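Anyone up for a design puzzle?
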């Protein structure tokens, strides 16, 4: 009898262990941040240019946001607000779906399609899939199918943004006869990157030239001209910084905001890349800091990242439109040629024309957008560069951080003052336009 009872108990235990779990799947903001951080790290490994990196951030965020907006009445769809976006598919009402699972799956899947090292993203994806499937297989499968369907919808829209066409357009032609025009700079003497980026379809902007800045000061090597005064200012500031040595605050600022993924290091006959995040990635890091400091929930975190990445994406289009229009020579080239052949900037000069400063434009746009979300006097510690051996810096507002990012380019010896000052205003104006045009919070 006891043996029979034991057998029945064992059979019951086996039956219960085979039953599907029906626990709620909780998606955390940390899991979303892990997805964004993974993509940032992969982009560093794969070496994407700053404009292309902004595209990799923006589309996956939009995919996730549209799913969130469909199920949260606090947020409004971007359909009708950004160019050519159509409504994402709607799931069957009778199917149990976790929209936050779907949003993160859409984010990961679209991100994976935009990078080279897909396998690195799949490691994170598969680890999350395993946990979610264990919690509730039916809900997970439904949510996964829906997330992938939305990712496919956004991918089809993305593929019409003219990016693929710009891959086949001719390289930038260097004009060696005009001394005002940009020339490739040491040590790699790379070609100008993304000369056709202004042809990429923007999100909120009417056109790439909508925020066309005033032209740079007319090129002149006359010592009384504004252009020459700005050139010699870069040289003099650099020399003063060098005298201060390792304790120089301006050098610390320049290094903190370097964000150049193209830094080349030469050791003997060997040249290799020193990998860093892009300007957009730095501001995505600040968006994470703000989201975590305010304990933003999953949906608000997605909203903050989406709005900020849209502004930065359009900022790169606006800035690159001007860069290849004015096609202005970098300080390093002129200083070496006319003033001091042994001079080197604190930062390595990036491979594209000088005016306006990309970091200034993007920082102004990102800071203005983040201010609209988290407030004007948002005090924060920026630890975005810790992984690159740089200390935390403290800021009293996003706009203060943007101003420092902008002036860092002159401290670094890679931009004239006009590119910095006009660039930060160009970015702020663009960010203000994005804030005004996009109604993402439902009224």
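Challenge accepted. My sequence:
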């Amino acid at each position: 009898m006891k043996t029979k009872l034991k057998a029945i108990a064992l059979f019951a235990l086996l039956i219960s262990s085979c039953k599907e779990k029906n626990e709620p799947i909780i998606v955390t903001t940390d899991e979303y941040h892990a997805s964004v951080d993974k993509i940032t790290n992969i982009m560093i490994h794969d070496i994407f240019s700053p404009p292309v990196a902004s595209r990799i951030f923006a589309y996956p965020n939009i995919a996730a946001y549209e799913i969130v907006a469909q199920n949260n009445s606090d947020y409004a769809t971007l359909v009708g607000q950004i160019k050519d976006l159509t409504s994402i598919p709607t799931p069957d009402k009778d199917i149990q779906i976790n929209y936050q699972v779907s949003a993160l799956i859409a984010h990961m899947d679209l991100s994976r399609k935009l990078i080279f090292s897909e396998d690195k993203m799949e490691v994170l994806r598969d680890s999350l899939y395993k946990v979610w499937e264990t919690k509730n297989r039916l809900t997970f499968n439904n949510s996964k199918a829906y997330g992938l369907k939305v990712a496919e919808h956004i991918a089809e829209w993305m593929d019409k943004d003219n990016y693929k066409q710009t891959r086949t357009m001719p390289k930038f032609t260097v004009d060696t006869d005009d001394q005002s025009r940009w020339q490739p700079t040491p040590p790699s003497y790379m070609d100008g990157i993304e000369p056709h980026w202004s042809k990429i379809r923007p999100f909120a902007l009417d056109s790439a030239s909508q925020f066309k800045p005033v032209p740079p000061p007319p090129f002149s090597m006359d010592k009384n001209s504004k252009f020459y005064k700005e050139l010699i200012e870069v040289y003099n500031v650099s020399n003063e910084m060098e005298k201060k040595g390792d304790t120089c605050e301006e050098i610390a600022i320049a290094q903190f905001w370097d964000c150049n993924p193209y830094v080349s290091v030469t050791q003997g006959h060997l040249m290799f890349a020193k990998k860093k995040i892009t300007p957009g990635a730095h501001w995505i890091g600040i968006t994470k800091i703000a989201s975590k400091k305010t304990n933003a929930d999953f949906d608000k975190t997605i909203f903050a990242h989406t709005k900020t990445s849209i502004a930065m994406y359009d900022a790169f289009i606006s800035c690159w439109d001007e860069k290849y229009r004015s096609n202005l020579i970098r300080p390093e080239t002129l200083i070496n040629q006319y003033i001091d052949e042994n001079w080197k900037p604190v930062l390595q000069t990036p491979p594209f024309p000088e005016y306006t400063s990309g970091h200034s434009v993007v920082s102004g746009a990102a800071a203005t957008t983040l201010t609209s979300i988290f407030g004007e006097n948002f005090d924060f510690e920026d630890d975005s560069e810790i992984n690159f051996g740089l200390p935390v810096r403290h800021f009293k507002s996003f706009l203060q951080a943007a101003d420092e990012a902008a002036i860092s380019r002159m401290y670094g010896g890679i931009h004239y003052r006009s590119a910095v000052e006009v660039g930060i205003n160009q970015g702020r104006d663009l960010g203000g336009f994005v804030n005004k045009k996009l109604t993402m919070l439902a009224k």
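A detail worth pointing out: Confidence is low (pLDDT under 50) at residues 7-18.
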